[in-house]
Amino acid sequence: MPPEPADRALQSASGAANRPGAFLNIPYDRAFGDLYLAYIAGITAFSLVPKTTLEIPGGERRLDRIFGLIRSCPYSFHDLSRVELDLRRPATPRFNMPFELGLAVAWAKLSPGRHTWFVFESRPRRVEKSLSDLAGTDVYIHDGRPAGVFRELSNALIRVDRQPSFQQMQAIYTGLKKDLPSVLADAGADSAFGARVFTHLAFLARKLAGA
Length: 211
Known about the structure:
Layout: H1 5-11, E1 21-25, H2 33-45, E2 49-51, H3 62-71, E3 75-79, E4 85-86, E5 92-93, H4 96-110, E6 116-121, H5 126-130, E7 139-141, H6 146-156, H7 166-187, H8 195-209
Parallel strand pairs: 1-2, 1-3, 3-6, 6-7
Antiparallel strand pairs: 4-5
């Protein structure tokens, strides 16, 4: 009997082992779902392998694993568009994204030429206010739309060998969005932000990209 789709996704993870990794630092919530799929689709279209903290297993010190994951990737993408107050009591800003950005910046400083980081936002000039230490840094503004993510990934990754078209990235995204309900069903999950679902989505993206 052939393996189920989710099993094929897990078994194929080694197929991307020789492709450069791209650490994806984003919020994990439903409101970000479309942009989450857009990042997976766009990064894969550039022949990079998206990596997230969703893949970090329990039982080991999380901070060490996050830093190790960043160090293993030549690229990292940090979306600061949701560094805002959580309306649930107590109202608290989200610090995970800027904290992980700081880890990537430190690694790039300590190991010149081994890591390149990019900052993404939905609104212009907001990062200059929320994180003034980044003054002078190019911030890629995606307008909160998947099309904006594709556009700004193309601007950020202009030196990468493979240069997919907007239509190619859009096609991968459309395929992921279409198959998401069956991916969730296969995993018995109600959220796209889980380790098994992410692994399956990354596999599907590679398949849609012909990689």
